[in-house]
């Protein structure tokens, strides 16, 4: 992974954030309550959207992304503490969080099932678990295209798997899926869960 991806991430996301994409992200993130864990906070693009929360503990394994989030952390309306850690080994006690937010990150996590187990461990019973992820497509030709492009895409885009079936991984975990909303012909999903 090169240093260039974190430096252009916000630039790449800017056109998307001017569309319905921003509204989807804002709507999902604003549902978080209490003490929040954000998985893979990147450059802090979600930070302005937190409303009814007491604080956010944001984890990010990429030091360059974490560094780029500092300005958004300082401008946030609520306290945000950032950590340079991976989702597969969270440095928090059991039953700590009221909500967990993960947006466009599960595609990059090397061991997603382990990360889901950690999320369950650190979340309180009935905590809200909120995902906004791109996923493996159902249509055969597009799915095959994702499979072909993924090896190169992972190298270029910080480990991103275009073809990861994140919804199926979530269903295999012990999280209860409450609602799934599909956007942009099914490539993006907003997934609302409870830690039961």
Automatic annotation (TrEMBL):
Name this polypeptide is given: Class I SAM-dependent methyltransferase
Key words of the record: Methyltransferase, Transferase
Methyltransferase type domain segment(s): 37-131
Entry keyword annotation includes Signal: no
GO MF term set: methyltransferase activity
Keyword Transferase recorded: yes
GO biological process, one term: methylation
PANTHER family reported in the protein's UniProt record: METHYLTRANSFERASE LIKE 7A, METHYLTRANSFERASE LIKE 7B
Gene3D superfamilies associated with the record: Vaccinia Virus protein VP39 (3.40.50.150)
